[in-house]
Specification:
It contains six helices and eight strands; from the N terminus they run αβαβααββαβββαβ. It is α/β, with parallel strands linked by helices. Helix 3 packs across helix 4 (about 70-85).
């Protein structure tokens, strides 16, 4: 029985590793997005085509959760995933890669097109009021975004993640609720 229990534990861990979807939002998860980004960057390089990455981070999400509670935070993350999904085309890949961070892989889109999409998402979210059970009722949220493009910002998916992450950091430092390109 101990051997069966150990084997079940190993199989359960393997099944978790093979999952590609985030349970909360229904979007792709971080490991899938990172693998897919590497594939898309290799394909883009092979065919001399652009591939862009947008990282989106919810501004002041921890404060929102502290004020409204964890359940309200989960509800808002689902609503944000839905709001971002409206902008996603068939070839694009959207995933949740952190507690309040999303990544959008944009094959065949250059940096200018990626910035335009990120701005449209940012604007839509900043104009949306999210319902909560908190005394303040509906609340507004904003997102900051960092954008990078292959091969301009690097030849690998990891390069794009690092450059978009640095640009996202700049957006946060410059006052949040903005899109910055690497």
């Amino acid at each position: 029985q101990a051997g069966i229990a150990m084997e079940n534990g190993v199989l359960s861990r393997r099944a978790k590793e093979l999952e590609i979807m985030d349970e909360l939002t229904g979007l792709y998860n971080g490991p899938y997005i990172r693998n897919r980004l590497e594939e898309e960057v290799r394909r883009a390089g092979r065919y001399n085509r652009p591939c862009s990455l947008v990282l989106l981070d919810v501004d002041e999400f921890r404060q929102f959760q502290e004020a409204c509670g964890g359940l309200a935070g989960e509800k808002v993350l689902k609503a944000l995933a839905d709001a971002i999904s409206v902008h996603v085309k068939e070839a694009d890949r959207l995933g949740r890669i952190g507690e309040d961070e999303f990544a959008l892989i944009l094959p065949e889109k250059n940096k200018r097109e990626a910035i335009e999409m990120a701005e449209a998402i940012r604007t839509q979210i900043s104009m949306t009021r999210f319902g909560t059970n908190a005394p303040q009722g509906k609340m507004g949220l904003t997102v900051s975004a960092g954008v990078s493009e292959n091969p301009i910002d690097g030849p690998t998916g990891q390069d794009l993640l690092e450059k978009a992450g640095a640009a996202l950091g700049q957006a946060k430092k410059q006052g949040k609720n903005r899109v910055i390109a690497a």
